[in-house]
Write a structure and sequence with these properties.
Keywords: Methyltransferase, Transferase. The chain has about 230 residues and is of the alpha/beta class. It has seven helices and seven strands. Helix 4 packs parallel to helix 7. It is elongated.
Amino acid sequence: MHAQADTAVATVGAVEESEVGVPPWPGGPEAWPDDPRYDPELLAHGDRRNVADRYRYWSLEAVVADLDTRRHGFHVAIENWQHDLNIGSVVRTANAFLACEVHIVGRRRWNRRGAMVTDRYQHVRHHPDVADLIAWANSEDLPVLGVDNLPGSVPLEGYALPRACVLLFGQESVGLSDEARAAAVDVLHIAQFGSTRSINAGAAAAIAMHAWITQHAALEPVPWEGRPGREFPG
C-alpha cells in the first residue's frame, strides 16, 4: 500500500513539475518571424503562458489589441462588498467568452488568484457603488440584467438576451443587493433541479455568459495564418 501511495505521489509531482506551453522558437534569432506582434523574450526563451495557441509568442500588448478587435457586446458586473473569492473565476470566464469588460462594484481590491492572470488580457473597470455602474450603463445605452434566484425573477432559459447588455451578479451568499435589484431591467434565474438552494456566483456567471454566447456569438473557427502548427508541445 505504501509503495503504491509513494508511486502516486511521485506521479502527481511529475505532472505538476512538467512544463507547459512551447519552447524557444527553433532556429535561433535568424529564424524568428518578422512580425512586430511577436515578443523577442518569448521567442528566445519559450512561451509558458496560459494563452490559446494562436497567441503563442505574441506580446501581451499584441494579444490585447487583437482581442479588442473582436470583443463581444456583453459586459459582466459583480458586486464586491466582502472580497468575494469568486471574482477571479468570473474574470477568467469573461476572458474565455471575450466579454467587452468586467465591472467590479464596491471594493476596488479583489482576489486575483482565480483569474489565473487573465485579468491582464481583460478590461476591468471599477465602480464604487451600484449607482455609479447604472449611470455608466445608461450613458452607454446598455440595459442591466440581474442574475439571481429571487421571487419574481424570470428564467434565463429562453430569455432573449440583448446583444449589448450588462449581466450583473451579486455578492456570494447574499446575492444581488437591494440597489442592484431595483436598478435591473429584469432579474433572471437559472433553472435548478437538486436540493441546493443556489449555485455559487462564479458558476452562475459562467452559465449566464454562455447563454449569451449561444444566442449571439459566431461559432465558426477564427481564420489563422502565419504560425507554426502544433509540432511544439502545448
